[in-house]
Specification:
single chain, mainly alpha, 236 residues, two-stranded antiparallel ribbon, 2 strands, flat, 10 helices, 72% helix
């Protein structure tokens, strides 16, 4: 009887230890990272879709964006004459091209719900890209849940429709390209696309220049700098 009870205790301890080891493997190793990342993306998609359906949209800049690009679409090319409800157009040419496309897709900016779904796609795609970079950096899964906990991010993307979302998407694509020697040659073009939407992305240039120099010396750094400048001229 005593021996049987001892075996049962040892079995319980063994099962408890295995359960702890399994949880540690899930939370702190890369074995289940991909599955966790997919679940997080599905969760984010559902949550953000629910936010769109249940939380009221707040107008801040969207109408001004649409008014500004409408002037370009109507034929005006003088930046000093392009105006919106919040003042003159202050964003680069890439903003005009991309939000001009959104102007057309969303019935001249009137279909706010469709615009929110577009920004939902941008948000989820950006989060997926960040998760891929986290995997490459071997970030433990226990930390990736922090990505979905920002109320502010959800608001900026689908309740405010700020152009920062588009610029940030290009910036993250540029960072992802820099993570791989085979794709780093595309990073300058992607970073330039972000700058062309909103100039704050230009703050990443010093760090990018250092990474280009580390990866390919002055030749790569100067080539990518030329791509950035040349693409800005081409877009404008």
């Amino acid at each position: 009887m005593v021996a049987r009870k001892g075996r049962r205790i040892r079995t319980d301890i063994s099962l408890s230890r295995k359960a702890k080891d399994f949880m540690a493997e899930i939370l702190f190793t890369q074995r289940f990272y991909s599955a966790i990342a997919v679940l997080l993306i599905v969760f984010e998609t559902v949550v953000t879709f629910t936010i769109i359906r249940r939380v009221s949209y707040t107008e801040i800049d969207w109408k001004a964006y649409m008014q500004e690009v409408a002037g370009v679409i109507s034929g005006e090319r003088n930046y000093t004459k392009l105006q919106g409800a919040t003042g003159p157009l202050v964003y680069p040419a890439g903003f005009v091209w991309i939000f001009g496309l959104l102007w057309q897709v969303t019935d001249r900016g009137k279909d706010i719900r469709l615009a929110q779904y577009v920004f939902l796609g941008i948000y989820v795609a950006t989060q997926a890209l960040v998760l891929l970079m986290y995997k490459r950096a071997r970030i433990p899964p226990v930390l990736v849940g922090l990505l979905v906990m920002s109320r502010r991010l959800h608001s900026i993307y689908v309740l405010r429709l700020f152009n920062d979302c588009v610029a940030t998407a290009f910036a993250h694509m540029a960072i992802f390209a820099m993570c791989n020697r085979r794709s780093i040659q595309w990073s300058g073009l992607l970073l330039s696309a972000g700058i062309a939407v909103k100039m704050n992305v230009i703050l990443m240039l010093p760090g990018a220049a250092f990474l280009w120099w580390r990866a390919g010396g002055w030749r790569l750094a100067l080539t990518q700098a030329a791509v950035v400048v040349g693409s800005q001229v081409a877009v404008a």
